[in-house]
Amino acid sequence: MAAVDHAHPPIANQSSRVDARTLGMFLFIASEIMLFGSFFTVYFFVRVSAGTPWPTPPYELPVFVAGMNTIILVTSSFTMHWALQSIKRGNRSGLKAGLVLTFLLGLTFLLTQVLEYSRIGFAPYTNAFGSVFFGLTGLHGAHVFVGLTLLAFATIRAFRGHYTEEEHHGVEIPGIYWHFVDVMWIVVYTTVYIL
Amino acid sequence: MQNPLSSEGEAFRFLLGTVVYFALIAVAGVINAWAGLVVFIVLSVAVVWWWWRSREPAGPVEASPVRGGPEGERRILVVANETVGGEPLLEQIKQLASQGNTRVLVVSPALNTPLRHLASDEDPARAQARERLDRSLAELERNGVQASGEVGDGDPLQAMEDALRTFGADEIVISTHPEGRSNWLERGVVSSARERYAVPIHHVVVDLGDRPF
User: Fold this and answer.
1) This model's pTM is above 0.95
2) What ipTM, to 2 d.p.?
3) How many CA atoms within 13 Å lie on the side-chain side of A102?
4) Is B100 found in the same domain as B189?
């Protein structure tokens, strides 16, 4: 029988495989899209099919404060991107500063939302409008909390000297998640507060 | 089409696109509800059109360097899978191998289902490719052709690229099913290989009919 040169696949074969950690993140985000999708279905049913006034008088939504909060959250995506670009260039100071800023901006967003809840004047049990509002924004807030937890781990690891120019998966994955959370907020803010 | 969440950079660009998309809709919607609807429809159509366009095959890629063998040695790279034991392919290899000092490497791409590929479950595909490869190498040996072989990446172009980096080639032979039954021909594997590699590429059509190799 003819000789077979390689008893194992050449290393280059790995090039077109999907990384298991990245695949896990894809599946997670797909499930998240379905979760948010179910909440948005309720929103559209209440607002369009049932014709519920939005917001239901006499309540009003703090569009300006939420708008400022949106700017804060979008800015945090820029700092997140800066953090990853920094470590890719071997700039550890940039990585640390970017992660700390992202965490602080995210925390500011979350605390502002908590403050908004305490002053908004209605509760989830007030009516369908209240249920949908708290459901959608609360679901998103929970995701911000998870994102902040991931960022906290990444920040601690960065300060402990982890991550290099070649190995920074621990920043990349929270980064993808953080941008996804921001994308979902843009959708929530536009549909719930603006339109 | 690129997955918008395949990397942090892609996700960041996706976020920027989302901000612009919803900002335009919101501004138009605040001015006039119908204007908002029109902007929504126009932007959505534009996004779908862009997505549809990005599904089309990419243009020609830059030719990759091909490393040849030692002076006086001719190297033949054969890329085939289900057709690896077909008579026309064996004849072509025999003919090429009969011309002086020739080394032949047969690469059998581990063709996989999309779901298994996504889950990085390629062991069964590699085992099947290995089985076909071993039979074909034995067949070549029976016909007096000394060839080596390896199982390659599931993407035939990637498998060729890998083999060229480790083996090099003066000529490449690609074996496919006939037109209409060949997934490789439908995907333009042969034409893409001709654009990429500056070596003679022979295309051999093997009609196995209903006979599995």
Assistant:
1) no
2) 0.82
3) 33
4) yes
Say which amino acid occupies B119: A
Nearest to B106 by CA among B94, B122, B115, B118: B94
Contact: A10, B166; criterion CB under 8 Å: yes
In total, how many domains does chain B have?
Answer: 2
- pLDDT tens column, B75-107: 889 988 777 777 888 888 888 888 778 888 999
Residue B2: pLDDT over 60: no
**Lowest-confidence segment of A114-123, A146-155, B200-209 by average pLDDT:** B200-209
Radius of gyration of chain A (CA): 21
In this structure, are residues B61 and B181 in contact, taking their beta carbons and an 8 Å threshold?
no
Instruction: Give, in degrees to the nearest 5, the angle at Cα A191 between A105 and A138.
Output: 50
Are B38 and B123 in a shared domain?
no
Binary contact (A179, B161; C-beta < 8 A): no
Q: Is residue A64 part of a domain?
A: yes
Q: Which domain holds residue B29?
A: 8-54
CA distance to A13, A96, A157, A184, B106, per residue, from B84 (Å): 20, 54, 51, 50, 9
For the domain that residue A49 is a member of, what is the CATH number? 1.20.120.80
Phi, psi torsion values for B106, nearest 5 degrees = -100, 125
Would residue A28 count as lying in a domain?
Answer: yes
Q: Which residues contact B122 (CB under 8 A, 6 or more apart)?
A: A17, B110, B112, B116, B154
Report yes or no: B142 at the A interface, CB cutoff 8 Å.
no
Which of residues 157 through 186 in chain B touch A, CB cutoff 8 A? 158-159, 161-162, 165-166
Give yes or no for B26 touching A (CB within 8 A).
Answer: yes
Range(s) of the domain holding residue A67: 20-194
Report if residue B59 sits inside a domain. no
| pLDDT tens sequence across B19-78 | 999 999 988 988 888 888 899 999 999 988 988 887 655 544 445 555 556 677 888 899
Which residues of A fall within a CB distance of 8 Å from B8? Answer: 80-81, 84, 171-172, 175-176, 179
Q: Quick check: A183 and B15 CB within 8 A?
A: yes
Determine contact, residues A167/A91, Cβ cutoff 8 Å: no
